[in-house]
Amino acid sequence: MEWTRQFSRRSFAWTVFWMALLCAALYGAVLWHAAQLKGYLYIAMADIGQLRVSLMDAVADTLEWHIIFLTLTLAGITLAFALLLWLTIKGVARRAADGIGHKVAVKKTARQPETLEEKIVKIPPAERERQALSLLSLLQREGRLLDFFAEDLEAYSDDQIGAAVRGIHENCKKLLDRRIKPSPVMEQEEGSAVTLPAGFDPMTVKLTGNVAGEPPFKGVLRHKGWRAARFDMPILTTAGDPRILAPAEVEIE
Hints:
The protein is mainly alpha-helical and 253 residues long. It has 2 domains: 99 residues; 82 residues, no CATH class. The protein is elongated and about 130 Å long. It has 6 helices and 4 strands; from the N terminus they run ααααααββββ. It is 61% helix and 6% strand.
């Protein structure tokens, strides 16, 4: 994860900074104590006589070598502790992130519906009724579809019915293309062999015939299916009775 890498880099930089500051403080304390010790030695050896100069030079050289050795030791120990501290912080942060991710995944899994019925969005009955009847109302207004279904076809010949259906088909098709633009779910030709891979959407493809075993399934495309490539329906309002699919028409003379 990106934030984990950023946390790792920043925590390493801050760990090295504070440990280096600690090392500098310890080094300063060592230098101060070394200077104090050197002064005490000069005072203690003030009465030694001629050997004082050479002895003090030897003591100074010894102190300088000890200071260098102590400095390198402190630097190594500081870097080692900085690395161990950074690895500890990094491990704790990674385990915490994994725990949070696991809890989120478990929570998401627990919220997922177990059945298809639970996936259905619960729409209030009044709104569901208004939405369902709105398209039928449009088909009546644009293509007179309900008038055609309500007509008694026994009184007409096949030629007359065919002529009427042509106009209804044309008007309803224009309405559907303009509002929802029906498009095939599968582009293959009907009757051709198709293969459904594992993980296909059962809401998109309906299996018929001898269905057994696990995907991939091989079969013959009997129907391409339809999907709405566009949704441009009029805005629904709560005014009026949604069951009025087409108002009655009265011509005033």
